[in-house]
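Chain X:
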Amino acid sequence: MKQKRSSWHSLRTSITIWSLGFAAILALTVAGASYSLSQRFLSQSQRQSASTNIQLLGSEIGAEFEQVILFTNRICVDTAISDYLKQAILAKENDELLKRIRRNAVSCWDRINTELSVQSVRSEIRRIIVSVPDGSTFLQNIPVYDSRNTKDPTSILMAQPFFESLLKADRPQFPGFEESVLSPFYTKKILPVIRPIYSSTSTQMVGWVYVELSQELAARVLDKYTPAEDEALFLTIQEGDSYRYENHEFLHSPLPENVVSYTVPGQGWSLSILPSKLELQSRSRIYLIVISLIFLLILLAGFLMSFFLRRMITTPVSRLLNKLVKIGQGDFSRDPDIEWSNELGDIGIGINQLSLNVSALMEKKVQDEKEHQELEYRILQSQINPHFMYNTLNTIKWMATIQGADGIADISTSLSRLLKNISKRTESLITVNEEFHLLDDYFTIMKYRYAGTIELEYEIEDKSLLEERINRFCIQPIVENAIFHGIEPKNGTGKIQVRLAGEQDRFFITVTDDGVGMDEASIQSVLSGSDGMPNDFFRQLGISNVNRQIKYAFGEDYGIEISSMPGEYTSMRLTFPRSKGQG
């Protein structure tokens, strides 16, 4: 009967759900990874572009500042200027010398103008002052006309907080953008540069030079760069002051996070750019559109895949199910239409073969049922014989007892017990004590058979080992081997010793006879089962079979070991594991 199921559990629905689900997961994974990578790539690309731009701008501004530093260096090392300053210091109390240095002042003035005229940054140098240390005597050059120049400029400069720090600095420094204290009506900010001038013949400072730079020195370079709407340029001066360049002005502003900075080598100041978030978002939207298209394409591919899978799988599966329904209704004929040239076709071939096999099995089952009935009848007959033999042996035992034939009674009793254990008991493991009792019954029969020429002796080291469990009928074949292959061939009396001993985790039953012994080839023949013993019950068990039974029951670490000396003895040791908790 065909089982009814919900449409949610159909193969078609499962294929659709799994295909679309897999496509959706794949699309989300690809889209998420692509978006994350694209954001990282865009951010890195934007910062790399910003880094390239500020390196170009910083290098250009650095070159401008380097020109100013070189210009001040030339003034500081000019011997004519340093000699003039030394003479000016000495001329304070010497009128003749004062008249002479005034002529030298004109020469120094010309040298400064000449040096300035060759500078590419001369238009950004608003003022040059060369003065003695106390500012009493100085030369001033103002290339840019300013009718409102401040009088006594040296005193004003020397009173500024940045004067001493710049004068004593080891290398040229810029304190930051300042208001011009010498030209109060100049609206743009300036960068002051102050350098000491030393004597050409000693380490004495004979004066200082002041150079006033217009902010245009940096502004005209930064104007070459057109920032985005929310992008910002920052200039950080040597002493740590940061300025944001906006609308051709340098506005004091702290340096924000996530800026890309470039420090000009050898000058100590840096240029920074805060990348545009709007530009990054604009590029991200483009990438997001592309990623969305990829997402939709993967979903479409998943839908198409589910459609084709349904066509390729559900139709053949439906035909296979119909065939199974027919088999359930008793139609076991072969259907060639379900044997396609693919894996489902292999299933179809298997179903056809199964159908034929079921038909054959049903026929065989009918035949087996007939044979089973016959076998049950034979088993019933076979159960009559052991009961008949028990009763007969018991009758013989009582008759022998009444007549005083004790030997016949013993043999009858032993044989009866052996037959009872062989036919009725089915357990595979018994205690060592029970096995020894079975061995006693067997040996009683063999002792009468050999007219008392054989003897059996037990040696038990630990009586608790008698309660350990071993394979049933595992010692009789060993003792039988000792009798038939050890003691009987020497045509005399013989003795068999059974020794029970143990260790911490195992115990041993050793059967030793004083018979003719065995060579190595005979030992291997006995263990392999190719010794050709006669075919009665115990010999059918065989030593090789006993060895296998022990290994099957307890593992490969246990079994039979044989040692022998031809003409002297044969010893077979059976190894068994001890029960847990004993030792």
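Chain Y:
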Amino acid sequence: MDTKTSFFGFLPMPLFRMRLYLPFCLLLSPALAQGQVRSKKPDRAVYQPRVITPVQIAELQDSGQDEFAFSEFSRVKTVSRDDAGSSKNPIQLVDTELEDQALRAGIPPLSQLRPLPLDDIESAFPLGRQKQRDSGIQQVGNTEIKLIPPKPIQLTSPESSDHNHDISEPVVMESLSPLHDARYDGCDSCGSNDLWSCDSMGCDGIDCRSGRAWHALVADHFKTDRWFASAELMLMWRKGDRLPALVTTGPDTDISTAGRLDTTGTEILFGEQRTLNDLRAGGRFTLGAWLDNRECQGLVGRYWFAGRESTHYATNQNETPVIARPFLNLTPPSATQDNFVIAFPGARENGRISVSGSSDVMGADLSIHQFLYGKYGGTIDLVYGYQFMQLDEDLSISSGFTNLLSGSTTPVGAIVDVTDSFEAINEFHGAQIGFASRYREGCWSFNSLLKFGFGSLNRIAKRRGTTSTTVGIDTTTINEGLLVNNNNSGRYSDRTFGWIPELDLSLGYRISSNLDATFGYHLIAMTDAVQVSGTIDPDLAVNTDTTPPTDPLRPSPEMRFGTFYLQGIHFGLQYGY
């Protein structure tokens, strides 16, 4: 008889033979109509047919092997009739003998096949009025024949008996049908779950586990071929921070106006410009695993950091003869611009000042990637899970001098050291939701991620000031600086609802069977964040009359907020099984 290797090969058969296949079609129709097949590793939604080259066939023949090691199976249907005298369907029977290798493999000869019980299937799936089955036709059971690659043959035709036709082109073994594999190898489409929705042979919705051991449901999640990871170098730019004028200089004609912001000739040495915004190197690490055989649901964890960005400024009296710190003096009865002089010829000696600040940003998340749609080599996943992000910035201003001016509250020869320090901390904890996509074309791939984190943002401001005065061997220290005193020193915090939007685009090129080199762009932001400038009084206002405290209470202890973001490019290696 004619062996059919295609699932749709029954179409030209006589009508009475279609009744044998119709119950199987009903069983497979949901998977064929609804199942979105995602190809197996390493790349989802990319199909690669098996190819048997003539070189492989020749090697097998030379080695004496008659079988080729691939596992595609074909359903062979056999029909026989008991009387040669029946005239309804004159089918010519051809005896088929299995090769010795097939017999040794345990495949029975056709003479030992048993009838396939179709009555139970037809009764379970009524197909309308059943026609009377021809009593002269006996339906014989199914068996599975392992495909054997064709051997070179010679075809002789009456027209040209001298021409030899050799098989010299590669034989492409396309997928036969959803009934292509008789092994219980899991599910091919993303239905509902791995236990009850399948469309593979031996996985027909009745028992998807196909006899697997109970512990396989847990152990399968730890197979090495389900894991993927990436490591990336990130070059990031922060939004930065705009600080007020913290260090100034001016003419050395009058110490009372030197460096004041309302005085002609005053120059700003540090402040009134954006800082903490230089390029810094960071990294990102990703580790994930597929939770099912169809790669429909994955668990992905990420950790990233942007690298520490820092700023530093320092000068002394030898480099800058006049050094001052400006502020707004709100001590009653009036408010005026004022200055705190650190270096001035004849009035201050050994004047020095330094300003240093830093910014650290890091984040982590744990998310589920749930398959939504896939076609033409691309997939779209729904991403949801937990997200964490932290922004920590600090600033310290330290100054010192020896007083040479008599008639002031500070004794002549006293060494005065003044320090103000500020710290802003933001901690976000919340949920995230978004979309991730992947597309591959040959060796090139394109990945994208767009998601939003939302949840609780805890904002903390820490301020501390000290002033040390040393006269001889005696040192006196008070917990007040210039911009930090009893009105705003200490720890202040609050909570609010915040957002963490994120965008990531990545282009990859496959350099080996499991490794991609990637290049991309990344952007992430934090709304309503407090930076170090938000912990400093915006007017540099100071009320020096603080014992007992009097209005106005300045510097203000309030915090100011804004949107912080960082962006950059990344290079990396991505491993996928």
